[in-house]
Amino acid sequence: MSKSNIFPIIAAFLVGLFLGLLINTNKVTDYSNINNTKSNSSNFQNVDKTKLQYEYHIKTYYIQSDLANVRLGPSVDSTVINTLKKGYKFISESKYNDWIKISDSKGWIHQSLLTTNYVSPPPDIKIIEISSRVTEQNNSWWRYAWKLTVKNNSDTPKRLNAIIQFKDIDDYVIDDDNAYDLFVPAGEERTFTDYALVNYPDARRVEKTSVSVEW
After folding, report:
1. In sequence order, which ranges of 54-128 are alpha helices (DSSP H)?
2. pLDDT in tens, 67-82
3. What span, in angstroms and rounded, lies between the C-alpha atoms of 133 and 144?
4. Burial, 155: exposed, middle or buried (Cβ in 10 Å; 0-12, 13-18, 19+)?
5. Which of 128, 101, 134 is nearest to 205 (CA)?
6. Where exactly are the structural domains of the chain?
């Protein structure tokens, strides 16, 4: 075969090889584009579903449990960033499943701890117990020992003055006792005891014990 016949054959072979490589490269690129499209579509759907779970939610809520944890995110596994007391009022910003976001913070509260009905906040001082009993008696007086337990629901310590009243069956006051400067730390419960001497024979008519406190 002459050299003049070999050159056209070599040239045709090289052209065919180049076209083959070009076609295969385009196929790989097309498959890559298809895979990227599927991936992007899947990611878009996932983001879409997440967005659907968030709702624009403006409503007034009250804390109905004694205490409610405020979490950084809408999950029980999220960090607690604050604790709110019963009766606390706030306006929501958005909702995610059963979680409500507070409008003036980044916190979330579970909906089971909330209500849209008014809830009165607890008083700063709550009387847990007031009771009394006779510990000594004679023909002149009876000793009535009393026990008072109070809780400070506020965020500041309190010093209380208490009036303990000993009443008959119809709620008439027979005698009373005063207790001053009773210290109760913030958020804590304290019990105080003392006694009063109630004159005889009125002491026999004592049926009830009540208390009033001021601070």
Report:
1. none
2. 999 999 999 999 999 9
3. 5
4. exposed
5. 134
6. 55-115, 125-214
Distance, CA of 132 to CA of 134 (rounded, Å): 7
Q: What is the C-alpha separation between 58 and 116, in angstroms, rounded?
A: 12
Tell me the two tokens of residue 30. Answer: 């097309």
What digits encode the pLDDT tens for the residues 49-59? 445 577 889 99
Beta strands at 158-167 and 141-152: parallel, antiparallel or unpaired: unpaired
pLDDT at 48: 47
Structure tokens at 9: 């054959």
Burial of residue 146 (CB within 10 Å: 0-12, 13-18, 19+) is buried
Whole-prediction pTM: 0.63
Q: Which fold has domain 125-214?
A: Immunoglobulin-like (2.60.40)
The third-level CATH classification (topology) of the domain covering 55-115 is SH3 type barrels. (2.30.30)
